[in-house]
Amino acid sequence: MSRSEVMHLSKKSFFDLVHYEPHPGQLAVHRSSAPRRILCTGVRWGKTKCAAMEALAAAMEPKPASVGWVVAPTYDLADRVYREIVVCAAEHLRYRIITLREHDKRLVLRNVGGGTSEIRAKSADNPVSLLGEGLDWLVIDEAARLRPVIWESHLSQRLIDRHGWCLLISTPKGKGWLHSLWLRGQNNADPDYRSWNFPSWTNPRLDRAQIEAERQRLPERVFAQEYGGAFIEGSGQVLRNVRECATGEWQDPVPGQSYFAGLDLARIEDYTVLTIMNGRREVVFVDRFHRIAWDMQVTRVKAATDKYNRAQVLMDASGIGDPLLDNLRRAGINARPFKFTSNSKRELVDALSVLFEKKQLTLPRYELCHWLVDECEGYAYSLSETGTVRTEAPSGTNDDAVVSLGLCCWQLRRDPGPLRVTWV
To answer: 405: closest CA among 359, 361, 341, 367?
Structure first.
C-alpha cells in the first residue's frame, strides 16, 4: 500500500495484499457502509471469513487509535472469527503486530496511518465484561443464539460515542430478535440497516451436488434452515412453548407432599444441576454449581432434597455418575440411577418435548431463572459431521438444565411405556 492510500484504506488493495478474493455475496457485504449490517446464511457460506476480513480491514484504517470486538455466545464461538483474523495477520501482516496475547484474546496492530488498533474476542456469557468501553466496530458471530438483552443493554451502546459499526452474522434460528433486525435492513426500511440472506449454494466454492445430497437425508425444515438459510418459526427447536410454560414461582415445601428431583452431575466444565418439582410438574427449586468439591456437592444436594420431604432423586448414572450413586445413598439421599444411551436419552428428551408441547409443566418465570429458560429454548436439532440429525445444546453451551429437568419429569410419566432404566 502506498502513502497515498494512508488517508483512506482501499479494501480492494488490502484484500489483494492478504490474498483474499471474496465471492459475490461476500463482496456485497464488504461494499456496504451501513452502520448496522446483518448477514444470515446457510452453513459453509463463508460468513466467518467475510466477517474476519471486514474486521481486519477496519483495524487497518488510518486512525490514531481504534478498538474492535468479536463477540459470540461463548469464547469457543468468538474464537472462530478471531482466529481467522490472527492467522491472516500472522501470515500477511506480521510486521504490523505489536501485541498478540492468547490468554485474553487480544491483538494489537499498527494500522496504515501509524496508529494502534486493538482487536479482542469476547464471550457474551459474562455480560459484565461487555460494559464500559466505546468501540469503533463490532462483529457478533452466531448472533441468533445471543440473548436479545445482550445486544440491547450491553453491546449496541458501545458503538454510539465512536460512531461505530456492527456486523451480525449467523445461521438463522427461527424468527427471533435477529430476524427483527434483519427485516429493518430490507427494502430500505431503516437507512442505518442493511441485511442479506444467502443459501449455502450461493458460495461458488461449494459442490452443489453434495448439498443436494444432504437435502435427501435431512428433515425438510432442518435443511431449509441449515443450508437454505431460511427463517423458519420454531425450526430446529426441540422444546417448544418454553416461554409459555415459564410462568411459575419458587415454592416452599408443603408437608406431606411428594417431590421429585433430577440430578445431572458435572463433567469438567459442565454444571451440576439439581431440579425439584412437585406432583403437578411445577418446578419449585433449582440449584446449579460447578468447580466445588464433591463432598460439598453432596451436602448441597442433601440439604435441598431433605428440605423438600426427601425428594426422590433420579440421577444421570453414566460416566462419573455410576460410582457416585453409592456415595449419595450413604449420605441418606433417596437416589436412583438413569443410564444414558443414545436410545434412552432420545426417549427422555422426547417425553420432555411432549410435556412442553402440551404445556403440562411449569418453569419459574424468566426473571427468576433466565438460564433455565434460555437453555431449554436453545436446545435444538443439529447436524453432526456425518450429517446425522441429533438433539443437543448449541456449540459451546451446556444441556445440564435440560437433562436435570428431563430426569424430574421422567418420574411423573402418566404413560411410562417400556422402561430402559435400572431401578435398585
So the answer is: 361
Which residues of the chain form CATH 3.30.420.240?
242-410
Among residues 106, 261, 249, 237, the alpha carbon closest in space to that of 176 is found at 237
- pLDDT single digits (tens) 112-168: 999 999 999 999 987 888 877 899 999 999 999 888 889 998 999 999 999 999 999
Nine-digit cell at 163?
A: 460512531
Q: Is 284 helix (H, G, I), strand (E, B) or coil?
A: strand
Long-range contacts of 267-275 (CB under 8 A, 24+ apart): 267/319, 267/320, 270/398, 270/400, 271/398, 271/400, 271/401, 272/297, 272/400, 273/400, 273/401, 273/403, 273/404, 274/300, 274/301, 274/304, 274/305, 274/404, 275/401, 275/404, 275/405, 275/407, 275/408
Element of type H or E holding 246:
strand 246-248
Q: Treating both helix axes as pointing N-terminal to C-terminal, what angle do 342-357 and 400-410 enclose, rounded to 10 degrees?
A: 80
Could you tell me where in the chain the CATH 3.40.50.300 domains are found? 3-216
Residue 174, judged by CB atoms within 10 A of its CB (0-12, 13-18, 19+), counts as middle
242-410: what CATH class?
Answer: alpha beta
Fold adopted by 3-216 = Rossmann fold (3.40.50)
Q: How many residues does the chain have?
A: 424
What are the DSSP calls for 134-145, one per residue? --SEEEESSGGG
Amino acid identity, position 398: N
Count of CB atoms situated within 10 Å of the CB of 153: 13
Strand pairing class (137-140; 97-101) = unpaired
248-276 pLDDT, tens digit each:
999 999 999 999 999 998 765 578 999 99
- Going by the DSSP 8-state scheme, the letter that residue 77 receives in this structure is H
- Which residue matches cell numbers 445471543? 146
319 exposed, middle or buried (CB, 10 Å; 0-12, 13-18, 19+)?
exposed
Does pTM top 0.70 for this prediction? no
